[in-house]
């Protein structure tokens, strides 16, 4: 008997919004996140928004360090309680957890060395080298004037410096990181 392919619920947890899409749908759904969002609140909202969707497995992207499918530190732009949270028990389905920038990068990868930069609430970064995914946490590294990359090219930087200056900062960061990682391709994504 031929087994039908699994329907996947993709949950992209960002610092500003949580975006949802399931196999077979073309319109995503979303809700606000932010510095107080806990995993329990996220699960509750996801279940409410997807009550009419059928899915077998969950792919969960989070804006923070994930190693071997486990969250190793609470995301900087979300609430607490992510480390050690049992997503499979809460969803009652198999769940694969990955860094959100790595999740986005995989969708654009075509081979070789590719750097993904996600300009959203913060700065999501991932390097793919010959098929190996290397999530990076560059957003909180020092950049200029005692501030971080995220302070200049994340949403706070956009608000602080305005669109014109923000774009110049983005171009500078793109040039620096492309050179540092010797990327053959650079993919830019994120909410901004």
Helix content: 25-40%
Give unreliable regions as ranges.
none
**Count of DSSP strands:** 13
Rg result: 17 Å
Indicate the overall shape: globular
Main β-sheet, spatial strand arrangement: 3-2-1-4-7
Sheet-strand content, in percent, reads 25-35%
Distance between the termini: 47 Å
- Mean pLDDT across the residues is 93
Helix count?
A: 5
Structural class: alpha/beta
What does the main sheet amount to? 5 strands, mixed
H/E series = EEEHEEEHEHEEEEEHHE
Would you spell out the secondary-structure blueprint of this structure?
Layout: E1 8-13, E2 17-22, E3 29-32, H1 39-49, E4 57-62, E5 66-67, E6 70-71, H2 87-91, E7 95-99, H3 100-106, E8 113-119, E9 123-129, E10 132-136, E11 142-144, E12 147-148, H4 149-153, H5 155-181, E13 185-189
Parallel strand pairs: 1-4, 4-7, 8-13
Antiparallel strand pairs: 1-2, 2-3, 5-6, 8-9, 9-10, 11-12
Write up what this structure looks like.
This protein has 192 residues and is of the alpha/beta class. Helix content is 29%, strand content 31%. The chain has 5 helices and 13 strands. It has helices at 39-49, 87-91, 100-106, 149-153, 155-181; strands spanning 8-13, 17-22, 29-32, 57-62, 66-67, 70-71, 95-99, 113-119, 123-129, 132-136, 142-144, 147-148, 185-189. A 5-stranded mixed sheet has the order 3-2-1-4-7. A 4-stranded mixed sheet has the order 10-9-8-13, sandwiched between helices. A hairpin with a 3-residue loop joins β8 (113-119) and β9 (123-129).
